[in-house]
Amino acid sequence: MSAEEKNEDPSPPSSYFIGKREDIVKVKRVTKFINGRDVLVLYHNGTFHAMDMRCYHSGGPLQNGDIEEFSGKLCIVCPWHKYKITLLEGEGLYQAVDPSQKVLKPKWASKGIKQRVHLQTQNTTPYDSKSRLPVDVVSVSHSKHVSAFSNFSTNLPASKPAPKAQPAAILEEGIIKAETRPRLGERDDTLPPNYRFPKEPVPVAPVLVENK
């Protein structure tokens, strides 16, 4: 085995053990630190769901949020700012109105996929160390939408620094702005040029001389 092969970092596992199915069903919600992020696994109406524990908006603790149904979709409501996130896809929902209508009727609309959700699987281990009987366990694999999030960095163009302006260009730009700037208290779009920049000299008041 070469030195390069020994130095290579092992790839992360495809799935992570969360716990026994019966234990998660009993407590309803479980959080676990997986591969550098906090993951929330919850059990609701006979179905397991898994997503990032922190809300995409401001990092609110979703493990404390209520589960409600909006527009026919089960959502978890962030306890901080009441953001609605679908359990199945991590979709953000909000109420929108059409300003062109006389009567504003809010309708539920989608922001798109906002929250990172994870695939959860259930399988049976060969046996439990105590009872020596088969046990159902719940595992979580990588995010469903990890490719969608990673595409943000690959699709965006590389940032390029703006070219530095030469001193002569800065000086000329400053002269132009100084010449075209209106006087204090006047509006450049309404006052005629003759009023703003009078050509006649300002008369000087005569000097009073005291008679002796």
UniProtKB/TrEMBL annotation:
Example GO molecular function: metal ion binding
Basic and acidic residues: bias regions: 176-190
Region (Disordered): 176-212
Cofactor: [2Fe-2S] cluster
InterPro entries hit by this protein: Prot_inh_calpain (IPR001259), Rieske_2Fe-2S (IPR017941), Rieske_2Fe-2S_sf (IPR036922), Sol_Rieske_ferrdox_dom (IPR054716)
Keywords, comma-separated and alphabetical: 2Fe-2S, Acetylation, Iron, Iron-sulfur, Metal-binding, Phosphoprotein, Repeat
Cited PANTHER family: FERREDOXIN-RELATED, RIESKE DOMAIN-CONTAINING PROTEIN
Protein name: Rieske domain-containing protein
Taxonomic placement: Eukaryota, Metazoa, Chordata, Craniata, Vertebrata
